[in-house]
Structure formats: C-alpha cells, structure tokens
Amino acid sequence: MLRNNNPRRHGFVTRYGVAVLATAVGLLVRLLMTPEWGITLPFITLYPAIAFSAWFGGFGPGVLATGLGAFVVEYFWPAHFGGTSTAGDVLALALFGGVGVFVSSITRALQQARVRAERDSQELRWAREEADRANHAKDEFLAVVAHELKQPLSAMFPAVALVRRHIGSESNGQAERILGLLDRQIAHLQRIVNDLLEASRVVRGQVTLQTRAVDAMQVMRDAVEVVRPRADEKGQRVVLDLPDTPAVVSGDPVRLQQVFLNVLSNATVYTPAEGDVHVSADVGEREVVFRVRDSGEGIAADDLARIFDLFARAGGRREGGFGIGLAVARGLVELHGGTIQAFSEGPGRGSEFRITLPVRERAANALRQSA
C-alpha cells in the first residue's frame, strides 16, 4: 500500500516544491534588482514565478506561489522595502493576489482543455482505426463473396444449355419459358457479382489503368449511344450537347467509358418515362467538365454527401441496383486525377453529375502526332 502511494506523494511534493523554488527565485531576482529599481514594482518578478508554478503544477502550486510571494513582500519588506503601508500598497497587494489566482485558474483551465483535447484526439484515432479495420474487413468479405459466387454462376449457363439440348424437340412452351427465366436470372446475378468484383478491385486499389492519349469527348459520345436504346424504351429524351473541340486526356478509354456509362445509366434509371437527360461539356486549358443533368427523382441534401459511397442509395430508392455504380465511377475518376460531384435542388427536382478530368498538353501533342 505504501509503495502504491509513493508516486502520488512524490508528485505532490515535486509540484509544490517547484512553486516554492520559483517564488524564491523571483524574490531573489527582485532583491538583486533593488539598486536599479528601488522600492517600486515589488511584485514584478513574481508574476513569471506564478505562471511557471501554475503551468508546472496546476492551480494549487500557482496559488501557493501567489500567497508565498505576497507574504514575503509584505511582511519581510514592509511597505515595499521601506516606509509605512498606504492604501495604494494594500490595493497593489490585493491586485497581485487577484492576478495570481486568475493566472492559476486560467492555467488550470488550459491544462484541463489540453487533457480533454488529447483524450478526444485519442478516441478519434481509435474510432478511425476501428472504422478502417471495419472497411478493410468489409472489402475483404466483398471480394471473397464475389469470387466464391462467380464460380457456381459460371457453371449454371452451360447447365441450362445442357438441359435445353436434352429436352430438344420435346420441350414445350412452359419449359422454354422456365429455361428462359433461368437464363435471365443467372445473367442478372452474374452482372451483380461482376459489379461486386469490380467494386472490390477499385476500393482496394487493384485496378491498373491502360493509359494513352484519348479524346474523352468521343468516349462520352460512344457511351451515350450505348444507353440511348434503353432510354428510348422508356420514352426518355437524351440530348447530347457536346462541343466539337476534342478533350484530350491521358486515360484508359475502357475505364472512362465505364465511368460515363455508370453515370448515364444512373440518370436513365431514376428519370421517369418521357423525362429528359441532358449531356454537355466545357473544355478549358487545364480541364474538361462533363455534365449529366436529368429531370428525375432528385437527391435530398442529406444524401448528396454519401451518394458516391459503396452501397449508398439516396432516400428510399428501391430501383437501380445496390449502389455500386457511382462508387466505382468515383474510384475510376480519381485514378484519372479527376473529380466527380453530384448536385440537386432536392427530391423531385432532378440532379446533375459533373465529371472533371485534367486535360494534359502532353497527351494532346501525342494525339495530334498520331492523327
């Protein structure tokens, strides 16, 4: 028991011992400066001693330094080293005591604030590390599940084809409908698994770009033509308003088209029949900005911040997949050194996605040379 109390006693003695020592040094310095300063400013060298005592030991040592300094000055050197005490002397002593207590209180508050800040910072680091571990575990689980599902799904297509061959001419309309349903559902599951695999590769940084000088404007035109049939089926109007100026970037054309397709598909999914999807672009000296604006459901303000997170789905949306496409798009855009942003005035007001890619003169020169 005594051994456990020793460190506390040692800390107590040290803190208050330092206060006494600092006060003694302050008084000694003031005594040595008497020939130059006379009897004026008797407490001036004690203020640093109080501040140091409070900083080192806390409120108690600071108050001790204040009281000890006032006692020594007033009783060992009455009336500031000579003479009779006056009202001004009493006021100076009271002011010194008030300032000493105030400095000690402020120092204690600062120390407590620092301790709280350090504790909060540590808790924040722990929370961030825990979140990183959870994200890593999620990514690993995602990759494992997608990989394990891909193998049996790959075997289902030939199995259905084998059943269809065995049935042959004996198959009736009902059997063919069932087999067709199996084909479509297996293909749908395979697309989901492929999206999961792609998302896991992107978030884990396992995607390697095959970069070259490419006209991103043409890549967007090609992507629009891919989604146009789906938009036509829903009666949607896709307006393409791209300038003739090429937007030459150093990028992977396959991955860039994947980004544009994901954003365009998102626009067609959440835009109702007879709605509009408008695609435009601005080309500058340093960057090109693509805009995909729709007249669809829109996005609530609370959802805008997380719309690009994996598995995030704005509001109560139940249509359009698992919230993978936009997360993949953001990862691929960032690999190209660009940014992607979402804007919306709210539910029912449509939304706009902006994709910004850097235009590189080196890439532009290479494209002109190859033309």
| Poorly predicted tracts of residues | 1-10
What is the total tally of β strands?
Answer: 7
- How many helices? 12
Outline: elongated
Radius of gyration: 37 Å
Strand order of the largest sheet: 2-4-5-7-6
Outline the structure in words:
The protein is an alpha+beta fold and 371 residues long. The protein has 2 domains: 1-206, no CATH class; 212-370, Histidine kinase-like ATPase, C-terminal domain (Heat Shock Protein 90). The chain has 12 helices and 7 strands. It has helices at residues 2-32, 34-37, 46-57, 59-76, 78-81, 87-167, 173-203, 216-233, 253-269, 301-304, 325-335, 361-370; strands at residues 212-215, 237-241, 248-251, 276-283, 287-294, 339-343, 351-358. A hairpin with a 7-residue loop joins strand 6 and strand 7. Helix 3 (46-57) runs antiparallel to helix 4 (59-76), helix 3 (46-57) packs parallel to helix 6 (87-167) and helix 7 runs parallel beside helix 11 (325-335). The protein is elongated and about 115 Å long. Residues 1-10 have low confidence and may be disordered.
